[in-house]
Structure formats: C-alpha cells, structure tokens
Design a protein that fits this description.
mainly alpha; rod-shaped; 3 helices
Length: about 110
C-alpha cells in the first residue's frame, strides 16, 4: 500500500464512507497511533530539555549573585568562560531540539 492509498483511506474515513478492506483500516489506525505516540514523546523531550536549559541559566544567575555578594571569589576569566559556555550550550540545545523534534514538513 503506497502513500496515495493511505491518503485515500484517510479521506474516506473522514467522510464516513465504508472502507471495504479491513486491513487498510488497521494500517490507517496504526499510523494514527504512531503519530500520537511520537507527539507524546516530543512533548516529553521538549519539557525535559526546557527544564535542563532553565536549570543551567539558574545556575549562572546563582553564580552572578554569589559573586556580587562576595561569597564566591573566582578568576574573572573563569567566570567569562563559564557564562559563555552555558549560554552557548543552551542556544545549541534549543536549536537541536527545534530542528530535530519539529522537522520541516517539506523534506
């Protein structure tokens, strides 16, 4: 069964037309279930990775506060490298998530 058959089955099902082939209906239902499972997995990955990004940004903010109140004493170069690397990682993580979890439909 090729892609056009699946599209025809989906249209027939949407218009409440009797589908004579029960195997075709099963294939259509499996595709719908698979899409639902993929969407749930994408939501889970999105939430987890968003929490990771927020935690990293919160760690940088905590580091700022500790430096501001003099609780933490460190080398300014270490501070710059740490801050830059965290923001680069967060931007990279968000790019990868949006690129892979939400691919372009024209591919």
């Amino acid at each position: 069964m090729d892609h056009s058959d699946v599209d025809a089955l989906a249209k027939a099902e949407a218009n409440d037309v009797e589908i004579p082939n029960p195997t075709a209906t099963r294939i259509l239902d499996q595709g719908s279930t698979r899409r639902d499972q993929e969407n749930e997995l994408h939501k889970l990955y999105g939430v987890v990775l968003l929490c990771v990004a927020v935690a990293q940004i919160a760690a940088v903010n905590e580091y700022f506060v500790l430096l501001a109140f003099g609780v933490w004493h460190g080398d300014p170069t270490t501070f710059r490298v740490f801050t830059s690397s965290v923001f680069a990682e967060v931007i990279g993580l968000l790019y990868i998530v949006t690129h892979n979890l939400f691919p372009r439909r024209d591919r």
